[in-house]
Design brief:
2 copies of one chain form a homodimer.
Chain A lengths: L8 H8 L1 H14 L7 H10 L6 H12 L6 H23 L4 E2 L2 E2 L1 H4 L2 H20 L4 H24 L7 H26 L4 H28 L2 H4 L5 H4 L5 H8 L3 H12 L7 H11 L2 H19 L7 H15 L3
Antiparallel strand pairs in A: 1-2
Helix pairs in contact in A: 1-17, 2-5, 3-7, 4-5, 4-9, 4-17, 5-7, 5-9, 8-9, 9-10, 10-16, 13-16, 16-17
EC number (chains A, B): 2.5.1.90
Keywords (chains A, B): Magnesium, Metal-binding, Transferase
Catalytic activity (chains A, B): 5 isopentenyl diphosphate + (2E,6E)-farnesyl diphosphate = all-trans-octaprenyl diphosphate + 5 diphosphate
Chain lengths: 332, 332
């Protein structure tokens, strides 16, 4: 992968879809307003304008355009997806007691947990208003199912994340819920609104699902090997928050008795001392789990690319394929 | 009003609608399940089975039956309304840092804030799944609008509740949002699913709106004059939580300089000492604001009863009328 910004596939997609993306931005600005409660657009703007890549709404637009859609409603669905994502971020930051998001202080820190919870609820409700507007029952079913799957994944994570019995299958369940469900719904509704044939809709779902899993695995990997500048996260945040992710799950599976005791103390019991993060990193290196996790991420990216096969030839198809490569290029 | 339990209008309605209410309970139990995250039904069951009166779903069933509906979907809509209500309660308890709800410890106390936020999100999503099932666009519009209005009312309350400039108009705005919006949506969708004529649907909306406002005013009044046994709340909770409600808003409007300073210190600045609640109660008595608030609640109940006029003669119509009287009888 070249590092030239112009070559980043999501930048190429954003340029290709720039008119649609502007329509999405305008709709988001319009719908995040509130006649009565100015706190709502304040909090939302803080997050929405923090410069996220808007990857998820772009996936919806790309899927719809690639399948030949010419109507106006892909914009509503893209905005719906972004509202669900934003609501999730607001609630996640409360749940994780986070202080930073996209390199800026979180809303729960700038305002309070109350505002984050309630403004998140408002955005959820707004997303449901938006998704009804195209009048498509299958679209509403897909997006409301995704919202339920996301919440279910987050609740599962609450109980699974600090439990050493959590294996790769449970991890995948959590990731499918908290991340991949919205990616796959984003691509799937693009195909559905375009009235694409069933095998193409299925292909779009599979692509979004695999891309979302790859994306989350990379995110979890960067928590142990990224640098703060590039990710806006500090190395070891997940360890400090006692969140079992794939690199540690793989290390636990290979742990001897002493190592197991270390993970039990630091993750399950949460008793962490100075030097524990370094020791954790040494164990990940000892069992080579960062490399194994990279390999998994690449496999999911390959799965995403392969899923695109039934879709018609299209510039956007090539960009989606490149996007899958790009997602995992951050770790190579 | 007689105090005989059998004469309580919501008990008569529950008896009249018992088959429907059982179907709603069964549907709620079915949909609060989660294949992957057992924490979800645990938390939900704690709240759902705590013996709430299920007033809101009953309103939907009553409206639909009164308008001659014979299909199955009023049950889905009633369950939708109860899920939205339950999600709101879970988030409210986090926002208010409450320790008790319906006479039992709150979910945020028994589990944690994280579970309350995320299980609330799950129930919101479940409610949206449910509301799509009847396949009625107007129903989805009404219920998703209500969800947005509820969240907007809650956010408005965040900023308005501790601001002495909050007048009766802003209070009404908050109450319409956080309480009446779900009552009016509950009754309105009952009429819509039954394909009732426009004037009857409007009447159902107006009834729910006025009943919801009366209900909330009474709730706020009981906070200052109820007894813990009857309400499950402690006298003065709203004062301690610095929540401006109608009795205090009326007292602030009549306050002399010294009294205003008292309200500024205790509500706006939140500096409360022993004896302050007693002094607040004395000021409410001095300006007779509890009586004035009672009068307002009764006017809203009358408005609710009058709204029923366009609806056809029906046993349920009489029960709804009695229900409006009953809601305010708790304060007489």
């Amino acid at each position: 992968m070249k590092s030239d910004v112009k070559d980043k596939p999501h930048d190429r997609m954003a340029a290709y879809l720039s008119e649609d993306m502007e329509a999405v931005s305008a709709l988001i600005r319009e719908r995040m307003a509130s006649k009565h409660a100015p706190r709502i657009p304040e909090v939302t703007a803080h997050l929405v304008e923090a410069g996220g890549k808007r990857l998820r709404p772009m996936l919806t637009l790309a899927a719809a355009r690639m399948c030949g859609y010419t109507g106006p409603y892909h914009v509503h669905l893209a905005a719906t997806v972004e509202f669900i994502h934003t609501a999730t971020l607001l609630h996640d930051d409360v749940v994780d007691e986070s202080a930073q998001r996209r390199g800026r202080p979180t809303a729960n820190l700038l305002w309070d947990n109350q505002s984050s919870v309630l403004v998140g609820d408002y955005l959820f409700a707004r997303s449901f208003q938006l998704m009804t507007e195209p009048g498509s029952m299958p679209v509403m079913r897909i997006l409301s199912n995704a919202a339920a799957t996301i919440a279910e994944g987050e609740v599962l994570q609450l109980t699974a994340a600090q439990n050493l019995a959590t294996d790769e299958a449970v991890y995948l369940q959590v990731v499918r819920g908290k991340t991949a469900a919205l990616f796959s719904a984003a691509t799937e509704v693009g195909g559905v609104i375009a009235d694409a044939p069933e095998d193409q809709v299925r292909a779009l779902f599979d692509y979004g699902d695999a891309l979302g899993v790859a994306f989350q695995i990379v995110d979890d990997l960067l928590d142990y090997q990224g640098d703060t500048g590039a990710t806006g996260k500090n190395v070891g945040d997940d360890f400090r928050e006692r969140k079992l992710t794939l690199p540690v799950i793989k290390a636990v599976a290979k742990a001897n008795a002493e190592e197991r005791a270390f993970w039990t103390r630091t993750i399950e019991k949460g008793r962490q001392d100075e030097g524990d993060l370094d020791h954790a990193l040494a164990l990940l290196r000892k069992h080579d789990t960062l490399t194994a996790t990279q390999r998994d991420a690449r496999e999911w990216a390959e799965k995403a690319k392969k899923a695109l096969t039934p879709l018609p030839d299209h510039e956007l198809k090539d960009m989606l394929s490149d996007l899958a490569d790009y997602v995992v290029s951050r770790i190579s």
